[in-house]
Amino acid sequence: MLAALAACRTAALGGHVQLCSGCGHRQPQYNSCRNRHCPKCQSLAQHRWLEERKLRILPVHHFHVVFTLPAELRSLVLRNRRDLYALLFDAAAQSLLRLGLDPKRLGGLLGITAVLHTWTRDLNFHPHVHCVVTGGGLHPDSNRWVKTRPGYLFPVRVLGRLFRGKFLYGLRALYDAGGLRFGGSCQLLSDPRVFHELLEALYRKRWVVYSKPPFGGAEAVYAYLGRYTHRVGISNARLLHVDANTVRFRTRHERQATLSPPQFLRRLMLHVLPKGFVRIRHFGLLAPSNVQTRLQRCRQVLDVAAVLRESPPAASVASEPMAPDVPAYVLHYFRLTGIDLHQCPACGQRKVRFLPLERSRGPP
């Protein structure tokens, strides 16, 4: 992974030359590594994902709920990332769905998009899930939409207790089935007595669930999803200084952290996901099994077509680049972002040609 990030957008991966036939401006553009942990390669993937999501987001207010695992579990999660990340997703989603279906709370099936984050601003390990939750749900009779109270979803303490119970029940099941790996700082947990004591302590502890105020509408949901879905541990904009001995970057509230390069790389590697692991998941109305059935019924009940007719038309963008030698990805990038890579950054004319660049065999 680190090799891919180091080579990203350098001559090592090849690329092309942008040559303006109007003013002669020449600029090399190197290929991206496309690694999902790379801070430079998420923009186009983010726009593609958002285009797909726009067809499924309902025109209702949404809530932002965050589920966080306690610090006592972090070493065990590091040893069992795939299984315990999946358990974190399921415990959070099932807690929301259960309270949503409870007629005393809401009495409807919610729609949930959940995104896994594993970092703090200083890159320490801190697994938690951000959930975007519809402000209401489809009634079991499928004939009406049940709204939540304004500005209120569920009591966070009730949600926290339910989340705690579901996660610890699943953790105990994994332990009993021999599905957990131990080592390093969590080696003692392989002893059943020590593991039982940990569970008892965690059952007595209050687990943190945070519910933010609701979003105002679908546009606010898009903005939120764009910030969170494809975010990685650190962005280039937060890096302040890098040399052979130190890496300095911004953390929370404009504070700074300074690490040695090995420390910085070690923290960065804490947040590499297991191969093939899906970090954005959908539940309830947005689950793949419900997209063509219950979600479509919601759109009928809410009369989404009428909402769209009443909405102001989206601002139009310029016509697409039409030059015959423009690569397909340039057209796709323009459709998604409105940024015309065919336009010369020096003179502003749309006369940029894309010429091949030989791949370098040496270091970038």
Please give a structural write-up.
By secondary structure, the chain is α+β, with helices and mostly antiparallel strands. The chain has a domain at 57-233 and 271-290. It has helices at 2-7, 43-54, 74-79, 81-101, 156-176, 192-204, 218-228, 261-269, 294-302, 304-310, 328-337, and strands at residues 15-20, 26-30, 62-68, 111-119, 125-134, 136-138, 145-147, 209-212, 239-242, 247-250, 256-259, 280-284, 352-357. The strands form four sheets. The chain has a five-stranded antiparallel beta sheet with strand order 8-3-5-4-12, with helices on both faces. Helix 4 (81-101) crosses helix 5 (156-176). The longest helix has 21 residues, at 81-101. It is globular, with a radius of gyration of 24 Å.
Tag the structure with descriptive keywords:
globular, 19% strand, single chain, 364 residues, three-stranded antiparallel sheet
